[in-house]
Amino acid sequence: MSPIALARLLTLAAVWGASFLFMRIIAPELGTVPTAFFRVSIACLGLIALLAIGRVRWTFNGKLGACLVLGMINSGIPATFYSVAAQVLPAGYSAIFNATTPLMGVLIGALCFREPMTLPKLAGIFLGLLGVAILSGAGPVALDAALIKGALACLAATTCYGFAGFLARRWINGLDSRLAALGSMLGATLMTTPLFAWSAITQPPSSWGGWQVWLSLLGLGLLCTALAYILYFRLLDEVGPVKASTVTFLIPVFGVLWGAWLLDEPLSMAHLYGGVLIGAALWLVLCPTRR
Questions:
Q1: How many CB atoms neighbour CB 156 within 10 A?
Q2: Choosing a second label site near 235 at 20 to 30 A (CA), which of 14, 24, 163, 223?
Q3: Is the dihedral of CA 102, 250, 75, 80 positive or negative?
């Protein structure tokens, strides 16, 4: 991985890690489905404005339909599944399941897309999962129907992420990352709109929040989604889906650092141990493949 690609990976992890700060403000006020809808729709509007300012022509070269479908797979469906999981799973468990994305990428790539499977890469994936487990501080919970439901929802979301990385490389390879991000957000917005309408009618939020909530939504949509997906699609073109998916290992690290810096959340030795394991996992996954 080139230094520029590594810098993009770290920037993307820092941006997506910051999304947890915004989510802590937004989700308790608006709920999961409205938060997901406003996140992707604000990102969509922000990307439209960005392309207009940059005078980027909407030349999808016949790939708009693929972008819309990809947006549903990469954003709309996972957001829905995580909304289900958030109702029954502790946050630590959701972080662990989200970090199975590279593992899903390795398995899906080997089974469906003829990607090489190497022992260091597989060892790095499991080492990263262990690091995230330590970092998140997740404890044991009772094995019941709610836990199984939440776990299956998270695994379905990460499976979507795993497929989306390879499909993006096949369907929209070479497309301007700004256009790919816009098409993806359009597809996610089209999918979440009816869900949001149904949620607003049947279970409207008790409060639509104040200025802090909406400023947080702007940060979540514009910075943590619009900008983040531009970086993500650039990474896909440069390093491929498996290496790009390792950003999910780094997101909890930056989430902890942002929380300690801005919210005065405590740090412990578990954070150091988890960070070291995650660093080793990244090295194993990102090192050149030896056939």
A1: 17
A2: 24
A3: positive
What are the φ/ψ torsions at residue 113 (nearest 5 degrees)?
Answer: -125, 15
In this structure, what token pair is assigned to residue 5?
């690609």
Distances (CA, A) of 145 to 94, 142, 148, 150, 153: 16, 9, 5, 9, 12
Distance CA 221, CA 224 (A): 6
For the beta carbon of residue 196, count every other beta carbon within 10 angstroms: 20
Q: What is the pLDDT of residues 99-133, one digit of tens each?
A: 777 777 777 888 888 777 778 777 877 887 777 67
Tokens of 253: 């690290």
Give 226's DSSP letter: I
Q: Is 40 in contact with 192 (CB distance < 8 Å)?
A: yes
For the chain, what's the residue count? 291
Cα of 8 vs its chain's centroid, Å: 15
Name 279's Cβ contacts closer than 8 Å, sequence gap at least 6: none
**Residues 188, 76: Cα–Cα separation, whole Å:** 4
Cα–chain-centroid distance for residue 60? 24
Residue among 49, 43, 80 at smallest CA distance from 218: 43
Angle between helices 247-262 and 91-98 (to 10 degrees): 150
pTM for the whole structure: 0.78
What is the number of alpha carbons within 13 Å of residue 98 lying toward its C-beta? Answer: 24
